[in-house]
Amino acid sequence: MNPSLLNDVKITRVAIAAVAAQTDIDGDILDMAGYEGVVFIAKLGDVTDTSALELLAQQNDANSTSGMASLAGSAAFTAGASSADDMLLVLDVYRPRERYVRPKLKRGTANAVVSGIVAIQYGARKLPQSQGSTVVASATLVEPAEA
After folding, report:
1. pLDDT for 1-40, tens place per residue?
2. CB neighbours of 122 closer than 8 A, spacing ≥ 6?
3. Number of DSSP helices (H) and strands (E) in the chain, helices first
4. Is the pTM of this model over 0.85?
5. Of 24, 109, 136, 146, which is least surrounded by CB within 10 A?
6. Half-sphere exposure of 17 toward its Cβ, with a 13 Å CA cutoff?
7. pLDDT tens, position by position, 84-135
8. How crowded is residue 132: how many other Cβ atoms within 10 Å of its Cβ?
9. DSSP assignment of 34-103, as one string?
């Protein structure tokens, strides 16, 4: 069996790029049935000095934005002059207690550009995994020859 990470996880873009602002970004809802956890990765763009950023997760028993509850804990950072430009915020949610989960990126104090948020669901009960609909191509190279 090929020990490729692509066979073991499902990758999905859950939020598209957002222009410089101080508004929250709510990601798409993921169904966690059949998975142990999910890692959310927020890719930042140009982040203004003093911008307060917080990547958190929310959960719900229903596949609905109504009733989403924020989970305790987050990946938070307050930017310096250029300390967050083109950097990542990463949050791992292991064994959420409810079936549906989504990321929420809070942006406050000063503007921040966001290039998008990606989710990597892991600990799948069924393998191999197929990628999310937002992945247009993927490949695994096993002992590849030079091009």
Report:
1. 567 899 999 999 999 999 999 999 999 999 999 999 999 9
2. 8, 9, 35, 36, 37, 38, 39
3. 1, 11
4. yes
5. 146
6. 7
7. 999 999 999 999 999 999 999 999 999 999 999 999 999 999 988 889 999 9
8. 17
9. T-SEEEEEEEEEEE-TT-EEEEEEEEESSSSSTT-EEPS--EEEE--SSTTTT-EEEEEEES-SSSEEEE
Maximum alpha-carbon separation in the chain: 52
Tokens of 98: 């409810």
Judged on CB neighbours under 10 Å (0-12, 13-18, 19+), 104 is: buried
The structural domains of the chain, ordered by start, are 5-122 (2.60.120.40)
Length of the chain: 147
